[in-house]
Predict the 3D structure of the following.
Amino acid sequence: MAASQRPERKYYLPVGLPAPAPHIDGLGKEFWEATRRHELLVQFCGACENYQWGPEFLCHHCHDWDSLSYRRVEPRGRIYSWERNWYPAHPALQTGVPYLVVLVELPGAGNVRMVGNLLGDPEQEVVIGTDVEAVFEDHDDHDPQFTLVQWRVV
Amino acid sequence: MTTSERTIRGKVAIAGIGETTYYKRGQATESEFELVLQAVQRAAEDAGIDVREIDGFASYSNDRNTPERIATAFGIPEYRFSNMFWGGGGGGGSGAVANAAAAIAAGYAETVVVYRGLAQGQFGRFGQGPRVNTVAGDGAFTVPYGVMSPAQTFAMRVRRFMHDHGAKQEALRAIALASYRHAQSNPRAVMYGRALDEEAYDHSRWIVEPFHLFDCCMENDGGAALVLVAAERARDLKQKAAYILAAAQGSAHRQGAAAHNAPDYATSNFKTLAPRLYAMAGVGPDDVDVLQSYENFTGGVMMSIVEHGFCAPGEVNDFFTLENFSSPKGRLPLNTSGGNLAECYMHGLELITEAVRQVRGSSTCQVPDVEISMVTSGPMVQPVSNLILATERG
């Protein structure tokens, strides 16, 4: 389906996909709470000054438990890899293909990576290394409410 | 005991192989458990032993069909070993064989069966995402963005490898074409009689770029099994023994980091295993006569072949050709039964039965004078495993 023919949608992907939640043991809770405030957090260890992502209970580098905290980072990155999806692996995606997923590395946070959708034409050319910025996509009409971190080319 | 003595090399052999009819997903007339029973029984018959001699079980990927149920069904008087290899996908195929072999070498059991049953028509499909309201933990960072199936999970690793090394789509295509070519000689293969050429590949639909339809494994129903015994005993059994020369399993530094944060990202996860495997076997890539390399997706095969030293990353476009991968004369005959792409997605256990056939000289795409027959199981998952079989104990 050409981009111009895509149905008007409130969000990049159709509604009906699962909402993000912290791990059952609580890991990741701070990150998802922060996205509601349109803030991007990454774990940072004050003892060895390393960023860490995804979330863990201790610093994988120096094994410090107490110096590990969430730090607000610049919501900017560059495309590390990408994929264009054509097969709807979920019923909600039947009307959602094609769509783009990017893996974004954050130079301001030790080059940790985040997965998100690349906003705009799903058939656009994607170039690894391109600078992108975060776009916080609020799903206020979902129960529970959540906010996804999407990306657009700068 | 010195380190050099702590090896599985030459101590155990695969003495029997068994397979059910291989079906398209949903076509099996038997239940998944019946398929497992058939495969186990046939593996025992192939080895020339009574199925009640089996006293150990090993499988992987959370196989639903438990040793207790199998042992009860066959009236096995006593079993002494049961083992499950952790991890999803086909990463545990060679690992389950290695664990079974270790049990025999350790004296836990005498006759261990490695098995896998999978009827994706009767249970969930691997190619479909979860139907739930929320997704917690690691999945929260990917599923809401439409990254939920295996193809979606691995495509960006492959894309990054292609970017780093200039690998072209044609390299992936060569892997798919080789599997389909070999399947045309294999009456067991689901894609027997369904040839694939370059044009059909190029025009096939995308699943997720860079994977066309034919870069993806099938979804099937079936069962497969292997019977392992000590090397001395295998010599006296019905079939020519396929000796285990080496096996390795594991995962590299933080490969399981959430949200695609593995430090070494564009990898099949075999970089740490390959040197261990070759060192234990006392062989190198030049000695390998035939390779069965697990294809969840062709891109994983590409990185597996590179990481096992068959060619440098920058040589992929030259090395990855249909001619090089074709039995019997190619430089590296690959997936000679058709494998997960064209024989049956038996979760990679069909790759090991094929590796045994190559040792025996009974493949439908036999490579002449095989001495070293290798398997790699489960690229891009955590953990992965690999295996070298040989005609001699070494």
